[in-house]
């Protein structure tokens, strides 16, 4: 099978009723990012047949979207063991284990070489959009014989619609393409869509490719997480270089403790320094703080500039707006299968208590796998950032552990599926001494263990952040899958 999306699957064995026997079918992996490719590698190790569907023209489409940003975590935490084994079998030279890759480095030095391997290339379907997943001949309601039916994966590629029958489905679609809107209610602010040409989401390349868009302009940043903080620091640097650049910062809460961090008391001095730097910029007037400011409406003046109105009755004027209020999953393709999701986080219900940002003030999450991620439709799993729903606490190494466990589960090795093989120091990837290598409080184990089995203190917080970014010259914890 070639890597193009038009390749046809091999003939499938037939069961007693003349329909394909699920046990002989491949396993679909939806999403060609780091976790999706790791899933494929682990399935291959277990003698199973994976098929990866990726909507983009290459693997790692999402990390290319934040290609200018360095990760907080060094390479040694960003390469999956099974993937490394495959790569080294073909003479791959690993990057410096202690270096911090950008999103583009992650693709060019790791994911692209992995995808080019003969074991992988024929199992990738690029430029292929999955449009739905269902139990063949069962739909969502039917119980009788349900588990004996294979899954039907419906997809579009090269302008055509097709289907593939599979025995299991691993959904590793990530959340990168689905940012939260600016509206404080969780809905887009009134007028937000109409002003789309003046709004960017996430963390634009302020000092690089997007410099011309923001230089000499009045820019409003909405959000209080590390993506927002990183963008604010980049804009402040731009303001020093480009006269006329004005930076405004809108946050919902008047309490900026979370954004500023612990300062000198922070257990991660580099992270504390980031907060102190932002605090200094606010105190000096370089960054104009608007707090509390809950975005309600976005209007436009005759000259096209934005008039952003808050629920508090305030109005901010800006030429451009950057919305860094987090990400959310889009599980619309799973409308015909049975899911058991937490109503708030939109993650597997069993996983929710481990990752709820309303409870955990750090990102420490007990390693977990197939048993927490499986759904009521046997053989269906959420993995990677998609499994975390709206929680901003995901770590890439955690995603690798998830798919290792799922692969073991699918071959009946329950001992391995339950076994913990996550290799991180007790303080998480934030143990690095590199300058600004600190992890977001929502992205790693950054505080002493104070709750048995949870590893972090309880502290009510809003899950407003994206999975955390530093500035373009700083670090972002690879929680993203943005990558998937």
TrEMBL record:
Pfam families: Pyr_redox_3
Keyword terms of this UniProt record: Oxidoreductase
Record field: transmembrane: none
GO molecular function, one term: flavin adenine dinucleotide binding
InterPro entries reported for this sequence: Auxin_biosynth/cation_transpt, FAD/NAD-bd_sf
Top-level taxonomic group: Bacteria
Name the record gives this protein: Putative glutamate synthase subunit beta
Record organism: Roseomonas mucosa
């Amino acid at each position: 099978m070639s890597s193009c999306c038009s390749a046809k699957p091999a003939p499938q064995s037939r069961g007693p009723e003349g329909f394909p026997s699920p046990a002989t079918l491949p396993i679909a992996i939806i999403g060609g990012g780091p976790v999706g490719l790791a899933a494929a590698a682990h399935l291959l190790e277990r003698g199973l047949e994976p098929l990866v569907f990726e909507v983009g023209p290459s693997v790692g489409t999402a990390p290319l979207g934040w290609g200018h940003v360095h990760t907080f975590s060094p390479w040694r935490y960003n390469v999956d063991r099974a993937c490394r084994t495959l790569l080294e079998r073909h003479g791959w030279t690993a990057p410096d284990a202690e270096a911090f890759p950008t999103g583009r480095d992650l693709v060019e030095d790791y994911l692209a070489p992995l995808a080019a391997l003969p074991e992988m290339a024929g199992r990738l379907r690029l430029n292929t959009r999955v449009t739905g997943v269902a139990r063949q001949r069962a739909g969502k309601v039917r119980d009788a014989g349900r588990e004996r039916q294979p899954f039907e994966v419906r997809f579009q590629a090269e302008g055509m619609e097709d289907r593939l029958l599979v025995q299991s489905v691993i959904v590793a679609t990530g959340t990168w393409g689905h940012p939260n809107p600016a509206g404080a209610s969780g809905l887009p602010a009134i007028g937000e869509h109409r002003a789309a040409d003046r709004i960017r989401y996430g963390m634009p390349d302020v000092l690089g490719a997007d410099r011309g868009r923001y230089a000499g302009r009045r820019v409003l940043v909405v959000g209080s997480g590390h993506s927002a903080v990183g963008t604010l620091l980049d804009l402040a640097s731009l303001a020093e270089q480009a006269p006329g650049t004005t930076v405004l910062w809108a946050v919902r809460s008047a309490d900026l403790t979370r954004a500023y961090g612990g300062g000198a008391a922070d257990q991660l001095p580099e992270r504390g320094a980031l907060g102190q730097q932002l605090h200094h910029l606010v105190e000096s007037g370089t960054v104009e703080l608007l707090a509390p400011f809950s975005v309600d409406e976005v209007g436009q003046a005759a000259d096209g500039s934005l008039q952003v109105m808050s629920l508090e009755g305030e109005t901010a004027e800006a030429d451009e707006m950057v919305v860094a209020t987090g990400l959310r999953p889009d599980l619309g393709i799973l409308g015909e299968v049975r899911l058991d999701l937490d109503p708030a986080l939109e993650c597997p219900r069993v996983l929710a208590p481990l990752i709820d940002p309303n409870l955990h003030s750090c990102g420490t999450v007990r390693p977990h796998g197939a048993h927490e991620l499986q759904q009521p439709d046997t053989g269906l799993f959420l993995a990677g950032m998609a499994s975390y729903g709206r929680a901003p606490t995901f770590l890439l190494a955690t995603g690798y552990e998830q798919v290792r466990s799922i692969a073991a589960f699918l071959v009946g090795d329950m001992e391995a599926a339950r076994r913990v093989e996550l290799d991180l120091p007790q303080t998480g990837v934030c143990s690095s001494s590199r300058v600004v290598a600190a992890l977001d409080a929502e992205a790693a184990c950054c505080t002493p263990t104070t709750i048995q089995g949870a590893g972090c203190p309880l502290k009510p917080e809003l899950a407003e952040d994206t999975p955390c970014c530093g500035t373009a010259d700083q670090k972002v914890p690879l929680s993203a899958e943005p990558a998937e």
